[in-house]
Amino acid sequence: MKKIALILAAHLMATVPTMAADINIMSGGAPKEALAVLIPQFEKATGHHVKMTYMVISALQQKLVAGETPDMVLMPTSAIADLAKAGKLKAEGSAPFGTVKIVTIIKDGAPRPDISTTAAFRDTLLKAKSIVYSTPTATPSGAHMAKVVAQLDIAQAVEKKVTYRPALDGGVEMVADGQAEIGIYPSSEVVHVKGVTQAGALPDALQLNLIYGAAATAANSNPEPALAFIKFLASKDNAGVWKAAGFDPPGN
Q: Each residue's pLDDT tens digit in the chain (252 positions)?
């Protein structure tokens, strides 16, 4: 009888749903549009509650290195790999969600510039009266653009007319409001902003393909809810959400 009772108890324990948990997450700005759709679905299905904090990648990296311990993070997979090596994130259970390209944007109705080739993109930047993109020290796209203008040998000319402002701080809206003629940001950071049109992706030779993913933090003593959320985000069933938010999901 005692053995039967133990078996029944074990069965009951296995069938009890996992207790609802708060999942504290820090993220770069790129996945914000997709998460606005996916978080409510996950919360409804699991009972877990997701608490999001968005910030530029450099600030997120600094906070993790300084000892902040969210339950999980969303950021470029290259940064996840570095932080996993440093013991701040868990490589186990991490997953990519999709690749995001850098695009050029203009105000709705403005003439579409030619950015079809490296030479054409260079000429467009030189002709533009005002440009906005993310701070080079703050985000991967900003750092990449600093390299691009240096590679094109136009850094000095661009410096005179560029405003450094991350998308999270209103950089894309500067184009929509007519404060900047051209903006250059990851596609996922512009799809939801009204008043702007994508003129196209940077030429292949100048492109930065950012692969975004997520990982639980090494300090997370109860990682199951976070890992469940990562698995949900990476599900093929949600590939359409990521694609609509400006990402190219794995396998596409």
A: 444 433 333 433 343 345 889 999 999 999 999 999 999 999 999 999 999 999 999 999 999 999 999 999 999 999 999 999 999 999 999 999 999 999 999 999 999 999 999 999 999 999 999 999 999 999 999 999 999 999 999 999 999 999 999 999 999 999 999 999 999 999 999 999 999 999 999 999 999 999 999 999 999 999 999 999 999 999 999 999 999 999 999 876
- Global pTM value: 0.84
φ/ψ of 231, rounded to 5, equals -60, -40
Domains of the chain by start residue, with CATH: 20-99+212-244 (3.40.190.10), 102-206 (3.40.190.10)
Is there a contact between 88 and 218 (Cβ–Cβ < 8 Å)?
yes
Tokens at residue 84, please?
């996993």
* Identity at 171, one-letter amino acid code: G
Q: 224, 213, 211: which is closest to 71 by C-alpha?
A: 224
